[in-house]
UniProtKB/TrEMBL annotation:
Residues 54-549 form the Amidohydrolase domain. One of its GO terms (molecular function) is hydrolase activity, acting on carbon-nitrogen (but not peptide) bonds. It comes from Amnibacterium flavum. Keywords: Hydrolase. The keyword Hydrolase applies. This is Amidohydrolase.
Length: 557
């Protein structure tokens, strides 16, 4: 226990998991001025209470640190939750058309229909003019913008293409493509940076986008708090997010620690990048919203064969049997980017889904570390495919494996990936245990709204342990040798991502001096059967010692 003044709040009455090294369990916690002021036995902490001290009685329920999501897209996720047509990756194209008809029944003729998530298997199937015509019909001529489960690709209709200024003879943009059929006709499917043009057109035709974005970001915080998340790294923080978050900070309603990642080059969202965006981030940074990372995108996603691999993709008809994809960066360019991070005291989040891109990042960091010594934090997202010889290099170089999104179990997206990536490579994907065993700082994140409609961390924690889909109708386990223990999975959502974001002196554990960010659960995830963890509900979420979420069902119990 540590000495303290009379606390504002005491938490007791249940097992308290701290996620701290050396003292993982305590009986009670005291909170003063929004920070943890003492931990210890129930008797010790209760003795500190004064007449005005609030007592939070967990009533036997598990208390643990607020979760940290190391990879999320708050603006996109909040916008989806607040405004947009909700689609499931399992929806067929026919179901999508029907949902569009219902959703837009009362829309004006020029009102955009925006939504997601469209499954990768559907995106593969709609690259034709007949489905473009069906999308046009379902929308009644209104512009449509649908995002896929990777968030790298879009499906738009003819009206949206018109507003984008894209026609039959428009050349593909650098780093992207307007997918055409065999005759050369546009299909409405956009890949990689072509998607950004659709987002730009949507923003250009949005009424009062600043007000909309503010509502979206506020909604995003409500969503993450409901799942017990109190710290996030926003994986691509664009100008609209900086402005909205700054306004919310002024309103005093920020309810999570937010670390921004600013894209270095043109991105799949609208807005400035590079030096212009860095300046915007610095101008709008605050206590809770920190402009501390740059975002580098080295490749795309395996479903569209835009990932850079060490070994060839599966060869389909009329394709190059030696095709491995390519990185968007050369080693020399990436070394310069890493050096820029050193020079400006910025961390780097580097999107690298393919094992060739992962190796490129490690090579660049290794070169600069050898010359300049330890420096900023570098994270590689998403580390789905990593060559075995490169796994120990993460710990050796102090590079964080950012495991996101939740794709380490069998499902629809894995089926789509397996159509492009050889099975031998798929079978060794998501080497989470190897990272832990070799001493790397494994950090997990949802990548919300990619893949799933929510950032539900309890599904992720369960599947890190089981490597199986929570749906019993989906058989099998993905690379089961990589199963984690429950505690290892929890640490990947608490202590580790906080450290990876540069917030270990702020949050991530329940320790004296840190922010009083904690949650109360409806079950003890360390004791229930692993296949039940995804059913976990968060009864209470506290951020800086203030309640920011309370589950209605918990109030009634």
């Amino acid at each position: 226990m540590s000495e303290t003044t009379t606390p504002d709040l005491i938490v007791t009455g249940g097992p308290i998991y701290t996620a701290a090294i050396g003292q993982p369990w305590v009986e009670a916690v005291a909170v003063t001025d929004g920070k943890i002021s003492a931990i210890g036995s129930e008797a010790e902490i209760r003795a500190l209470a004064g007449p005005a001290t609030e007592i939070v009685d967990a009533a036997g329920r598990l208390v643990m640190p607020g979760l940290s999501d190391g990879h999320i897209h708050l603006g996109l996720g909040g916008g989806q939750a607040a405004w947009e047509l909700p689609l499931l990756p399992s929806d067929s194209k026919e179901e999508i058309f029907a949902k569009i008809v219902d959703w837009a029944a009362d829309f004006g003729p020029d009102e955009w229909i925006v939504g997601g998530i469209v499954g990768s298997t559907v995106m593969d199937d709609v690259m034709n003019v007949d489905d473009l015509a069906a999308l046009d019909a379902a929308s009644g001529g209104r512009p449509v913008l649908l995002r896929d489960d990777s968030m790298h690709n879009r499906w738009v209709n003819s009206r949206a293409l018109e507003l984008m200024g894209v026609g039959a003879d428009t050349p593909d943009p650098e780093g992207g493509s307007y997918v055409r059929d065999a005759s050369g006709a546009l299909t409405g499917v956009l890949q990689e940076l072509a998607s950004g043009e659709a987002e730009t057109a949507f923003v250009a035709h949005t009424v009062d986008p600043d007000a909309r974005n503010k509502v979206s970001l506020k909604k995003a915080m409500e969503v993450i708090n409901s799942y017990g998340i109190t710290a996030v790294q926003d994986a691509a923080t664009m100008e609209y997010s900086w402005k909205a978050l700054s306004a919310l900070e002024e309103d005093g309603v920020i309810s999570a620690w937010i670390v921004g990642s600013m894209p270095t080059r043109p991105f799949i969202e609208a807005g400035p990048v590079g030096e212009e965006l860095y300046a915007i981030g610095r101008a709008h940074g605050s206590k809770h919203v920190r402009p501390d990372f740059l975002k580098f995108v080295l490749d795309g996603v395996p479903m569209t064969r835009t990932t850079a691999m060490l070994h060839p993709y599966i060869c389909h008809e009329h394709e190059d049997p030696d095709f491995v994809g390519e990185s968007y960066w050369t080693l020399e360019e990436l070394v310069a980017g890493v050096e820029y991070c050193y020079d400006n005291n910025l961390g780097g989040k580097l999107h690298a889904t393919g094992d060739a891109s992962v190796r490129l990042v490690l090579d660049a960091v290794e070169k600069v570390r050898a010359e300049r010594g330890p420096g900023p934090i570098f994270q590689i997202a998403h580390v789905e495919f990593v060559d075995p010889v490169d796994v120990p290099r993460f710990a050796e170089l102090g590079v964080v494996p950012d495991a996101s999104p939740y794709l380490w179990y069998p499902g629809v997206i894995q089926e789509s990936i397996a159509k492009q990536i050889p099975q031998a490579t798929v079978d060794r994907s998501w080497v989470t245990k190897d990272f832990v065993d070799t001493g790397a700082l494994l950090s997990a994140g949802s990548d919300w709204p990619c893949v799933l409609p929510t950032p539900d961390p309890w599904l992720a924690i369960e599947t890190l342990v089981t490597r199986a889909n929570i749906d019993p109708s989906v058989p099998g386990e993905l690379n089961p040798s990589q199963k984690l223990t429950v505690e290892q999975a929890v640490v990947a959502f608490t202590r580790n991502p906080a450290q990876a974001m540069g917030l270990s002196d702020v949050t991530g554990t329940i320790e004296v001096g840190l922010s009083a960010d904690f949650i109360v659960l409806d079950r003890n995830i360390f004791e229930v059967a692993p296949r039940e963890i995804h059913e976990t509900k968060v009864d209470l979420t506290y951020f800086e010692g203030k309640k920011v979420h309370e589950r209605a069902a918990a109030l009634a119990s």
